[in-house]
Write a structure and sequence with these properties.
The protein is of the alpha/beta class. Helices cover 32% and strands 16% of the residues. Bound molecules: glutamic acid (GLU).
Length: 300
């Protein structure tokens, strides 16, 4: 099996410079450590027709390339079902009938971490479960043995995070992100996960799940996000932030790649030329504040 890094966008819309910077970083981490680079489209949820093609085009335009055919999560349901069946056979899952509201309103145990599932359906008797099945389709949750789990992150060091009885399959039948990501990374031989640091809090759950499934836990590097001038994570409403918008005001994809590389302390130019210069230890630890390139303020 190869050793690989990856970028795993959700095809919900066009990528913006923040997403593109994370992709460039993931590519640089992979290539500078002799790994392949893979692209996985996380289309289980929030997919918008046409977005995948736009995203792949924009990634290529900034120089991000991949070494195998693109994988789509909607084509891999069997793998996810197998993993859930394995956990179920070990008594590690249960059906949950709670609505969002019931979860919010349930009394939580003292010291329970905020947002953690309170465990209501974990304790249902067979008879109660039978009654509830008639009223609502169930989601499948993990019967977790732990309350927290520790991961090692290349940029954040040791990170301890909450593990609750997370959802593995939603009650509309769609596989949950945390399960799919763990199964896919292992099945694709991905042993290096580089992504935005907004996903760091989910990482202990994923590492725990990988461990239960007997899968290798990848190396992690959670990179700083790109923010607007109010220090808020960059979004489409922040003006010209996609390659399409930027091209319309005269900023080419090559120029955008140059700005991204310079924000990382690397020379502008082809991505391949940045590989020998790339040193994860030298990466800026702070978010990158996106400023509309000079001269364009009035056109955005
Ligand atoms: N598909 C997720 C997103 O676009 C990223 C998941 C990951 O990198 O693990 O936010």
């Amino acid at each position: 099996m190869t050793s690989a890094g990856r970028f795993a966008p959700s095809p919900s819309g066009e990528l913006h410079v923040g997403n593109l910077r994370t992709a460039v970083l993931a590519w640089l981490f992979a290539k500078s450590s002799g790994r392949d680079f893979l692209l996985r489209v996380e289309d289980l949820d929030r997919a918008r027709s046409g977005a995948e093609a736009e995203q792949l085009r924009d990634l290529q335009a900034v120089g991000v390339s991949w070494d195998a055919a693109v994988v789509r999560q909607t084509e891999r349901t069997e793998l996810y079902d197998d993993a859930i069946a394995r956990l179920t056979a070990e008594g590690r899952t249960y059906e949950c009938f709670c609505t969002r509201r019931e979860i919010q309103e349930a009394p939580t145990a003292p010291h329970a971490p905020q947002g953690a599932y309170p465990g209501t359906c974990r304790r249902l008797s067979d008879a109660e479960r039978e009654i509830r099945r008639a009223s609502r389709p169930a989601s499948i949750r993990l019967r977790s043995d732990v309350k927290e789990w520790t991961v090692e992150d290349q940029l954040h060091g040791k990170y301890v995070g909450v593990v609750d009885d997370l959802v593995l399959r939603r009650n509309d039948g769609v596989t949950a992100y945390n399960l799919a990501v763990v199964v896919d990374d292992a099945a694709q031989g991905i042993d290096q996960v580089v992504r935005g640091d907004d996903l760091l809090p989910s990482t202990p759950r994923q590492a725990y799940l990988a461990t239960l499934l007997g899968l290798q836990v990848p190396e992690y590097a959670h990179v700083p996000l790109v923010v607007n001038h109010d220090d808020v994570r960059l979004a489409k409403r922040d003006g010209a932030v996609t390659l399409g918008d930027l091209a319309a005001v005269g900023i080419t994809a090559d120029k955008v790649r140059g700005l991204i590389l310079e924000s990382l302390g690397l020379p502008a130019g082809p991505l391949l030329d940045a590989v020998p210069e790339f040193d994860p230890g030298q990466l800026p630890k702070e978010p990158w504040v996106w400023k509309t390139p000079r001269g364009l303020e009035s056109s955005t």
